[in-house]
Structures are given as C-alpha cells and as structure tokens.
Amino acid sequence: MNLAIVGAGMAGLSAARALRQRRPGLSVTIFEKSRGFGGRVATRRRDGFVFDHGAQVIKTPDADIERLLHAELPREDLRRIEKPVYVFYADGTIAEGDPTLNAEPSWFYASGLNQLGKLLAAGLDVRLEVRIASLRREEGTARWMLFNANGVHVGTADAVLLTPPAPQTAEILAMSDFDPALRDALVRELIYVPYRRCLTLTLAYDRLIERPFYALVNVDRQHPMAWLALEHTKGTERCPPGHSLLIAQMAGHFSMQQWEAPADELAAAVIEIVSMALGEDLSRPLWYDRQGWRYALPDGIARTSVLNTTHTGLFFAGDYTAGLGRIHLAIKSGQEVADAIEAWLTR
Ligand SMILES: Cc1cc2nc3c(=O)[nH]c(=O)nc-3n(C[C@H](O)[C@H](O)[C@H](O)COP(=O)(O)OP(=O)(O)OC[C@H]3O[C@@H](n4cnc5c(N)ncnc54)[C@H](O)[C@@H]3O)c2cc1C
C-alpha cells in the first residue's frame, strides 16, 4: 500500500512521521511545491541575520506536542522565549500582557524555526519543487494518479492526503477528475474557508533596540499592525552583535489594501507605523525584507462531516480543520488524520 501526501508543512510532515512510526511497511511520498520543508513555518538568512518571517513561536499546550518537542525530536537547538509579550491598542497605548498567557512557554529553534520542519522531515521521502495540480482515478482501479501543472504524471497512490490551505486544496480538486458530485461538494466546502492575508516586513538595524518585551500584539484588532517582534531577542545566533531585527506582521485589512504596493512604498509606510509603536525614529534600516502570505491564518473552519471521504481514499489535514492558525494545531491535525488513515488501512 502507498500514500501520497501533498504539502510538507506541519500537517503533512507530522502525518507522515506518525504513519512511518506505526506502519513501517506503508510507503509514503510527500510532494512539496517549494524548495524547503515547513510551509508557513519559514526562516530566511541574509547578511549574517536569521529570521522567522512566517510563524514566530510554537506553544506546547498539550502532552502530545510537549512530548514531540521535548522528548522525541532533538532539542539541542530548542530555546524558550524569555521576555513577555505586551499588548497594544489602536491608539498606540502599550500595556503588559496577560500574565496567564505569558506564563505559558513559547519555543523556537536558535538556528531558525524552520528547523522544526527539517527535524520532522528526517528520514521521510519528500519530493521538493513538485506542485500537484490535479488528481485522477487510475483506469480500472481505485488508485489515485497525481499530476503536476504540466499535466505530467508524478505518482500513483492508494490514498492521498491533501494538506495545502483550504482554497489551494479546492483548486487542486476543481482540476481533478473523479465523482463530480463529491468533487463539487468538497470544492464548495473548501474554497470559501476565509483566510487573513499578512504582509510581513523584516527590518534590520545596526544598533540595539531594547524593550522589556519580546513582542507586541494588537488586541483590539483595530491597528494596521497585528504583531511586532524584536527578533534579535531570540539570541546571538540571530544577528551580529550590536544589531537588531524587527518583524512587523501587518493586520489583514492593511495587508489587503497594500498587497500590490511597491516594496519601497510599503516599507516606508510600515517603518512609520513601527516608529510610532516603539516611540523611536526607525527610518534608516540597514535593509528590509518583504514577504506576502496570501493564506496566512484561517478565520473559519471546514466541516469534518463534508471532508469525511475516507471511503474514497482521500484525506484532508491542516490548520483550517481546527479553524485557527497555530503550529501545534496543524501538527495535531496531521496526527489525527494519521489515525484515520491507519483505520482505513485496516478496514
Ligand atoms: C505570518 C504568520 C505568522 C504566524 N505566527 C504563528 C506563531 O507565532 N505561532 C503559531 O503557532 N502559528 C503561527 N502561524 C500559523 C502557522 O504557521 C500555521 O497554522 C501552520 O504552519 C499551518 O501548517 P499547515 O501544515 O496546516 O499548512 P502550511 O504550512 O501552509 O503547509 C502546506 C504546505 O503545502 C504546500 N503546497 C501548497 N500547495 C501545494 C501543491 N499544489 N503541491 C504541493 N505542495 C503544495 C505548501 O508549500 C506548504 O508547504 C503563523 C502564520 C503566518 C503566515
């Protein structure tokens, strides 16, 4: 038996990892459109700086995730965020954050949060830079054939697990050839799952910017900036001594409005917002980096009753099945779908 997984983000990798442990005889191949593992858990390197321009930290609110991070995966590189997260409001007021939330540990990897993807992918068969565009039933069997954007057949599997964000999964299914009633029901369910966009601006400075907090989060959701992290507080591996890195994640409404803005105009607008927030002139960064996340965070959920198509050998996982964009929830969805696939194998 073999399984094809589309997407090497947290959901796809954790599903593959769980199945490899429990079912060593099952052949699992992961197809990933980009050049690396981790999806929205992503790290960039530039001029001696290292920064997480997607997800920033991982929380471990339950025993499974705690065990994964602290017992199952190598942990030499794992660090805890030492400073608290403060809150800010539309009028720019800053206040200390929720003490209960701040008491919950937040984790990252010193060499970059994408280390988590690399660790989860160890020993797995991942085909990078293969974008799956459509599926089709193999003639005369119940197996699934997978095709790339050029219509080239890249693999055949007994079951397929799809883990891209819901609208991207809908695009694949819309181009696929199988039971039209089922296909249309799935596409309708997935295509309308709302996602927030996020423009992320990383700013590097040749001086130290210090505050009593690691990050600021906007809690009234009225500010153009959703989150501002002092990325250099993650440690000496992150930037040269005496330098700083700020990461501004812009709010959904601001990101929609500015999505097409030229990078220099966007940077000027964001630098002004960040300067206001920190009460300091930040107009001369060494450099800035722009990243646009079209499907940053799900603002809705797809109904499991519609996605339950186990009898066809089609499976779904990802943060949108939990309705909230969090690393630990995406990992959990991968572990849960692994249970469903295992049950299907023993049917
Ligand atoms: C800016 C930002 C900040 C965030 N901050 C945090 C945070 O601090 N803490 C936290 O817990 N969470 C955070 N999140 C949310 C978290 O990153 C996600 O919830 C989680 O990573 C989702 O994992 P996933 O596997 O469901 O999806 P993804 O990470 O999107 O993985 C899907 C994978 O599928 C691949 N793919 C897509 N289409 C195809 C195709 N056609 N063929 C092949 N491969 C394909 C993609 O390239 C990707 O690798 C943040 C997200 C963003 C964008």
Explain this structure to me?
By secondary structure, the chain is an alpha/beta fold. The protein folds into two domains: 2-39 and 119-192 and 301-345, 3-Layer(bba) Sandwich (FAD/NAD(P)-binding domain), CATH 3.50.50.60; 57-112 and 195-298, Alpha-Beta Complex (Polyamine Oxidase, Chain A, domain 2), CATH 3.90.660. Helix content is 29%, strand content 29%. It is built from ten helices and 20 strands. The protein has helices spanning 10-22, 63-72, 99-103, 115-121, 166-174, 180-191, 252-258, 263-278, 304-307, 327-345, and strands spanning 2-6, 27-32, 43-46, 49-52, 58-59, 78-80, 85-88, 94-95, 106-109, 125-128, 132-137, 144-148, 153-157, 159-162, 195-205, 215-218, 225-230, 244-250, 287-298, 314-316. The strands form five sheets. Strands 8-7-16-17-18-15-19 form a seven-stranded mixed β-sheet, with helices on one face. A five-stranded parallel β-sheet has the order 10-2-1-14-20, with helices on one face. Strand 1, helix 1 (10-22) and strand 2 form a beta-alpha-beta unit. Helix 1 packs across helix 10 and helix 5 runs antiparallel to helix 6 (180-191). The chain starts with a strand and ends with a helix. The mean pLDDT is 96. Residues 6-12, 31-34, 39-41, 54-58, 131-132, 163-165, 168, 172, 198, 200, 249, 293, 296-297, 318-319, 325-327, 330 line the site of flavin-adenine dinucleotide.
Q: CATH homologous superfamily name of the largest domain?
A: Protoporphyrinogen oxidase, mitochondrial, domain 2
Approximately what portion of the residues adopt beta-strand conformation?
25-35%
Counted by DSSP, the helix tally is: 10
Q: How much helix is in the residues?
A: 25-40%
First and last CA, distance: 13 Å
Strand order of the largest sheet: 8-7-16-17-18-15-19
Q: From the 3D coordinates, which CATH architecture of the largest domain would you assign?
A: Alpha-Beta Complex
Low-confidence stretches: none
Mean pLDDT equals 96
Number of strands: 20
| Helix-and-strand structural type | alpha/beta
Sheet bearing the most strands, described? 7 strands, mixed
Bound molecules: flavin-adenine dinucleotide
Q: Tell me the count of domains.
A: 2
Order of helices and strands: EHEEEEHEEEHEHEEEEEHHEEEEHHEHEH
Global Rg = 21 Å
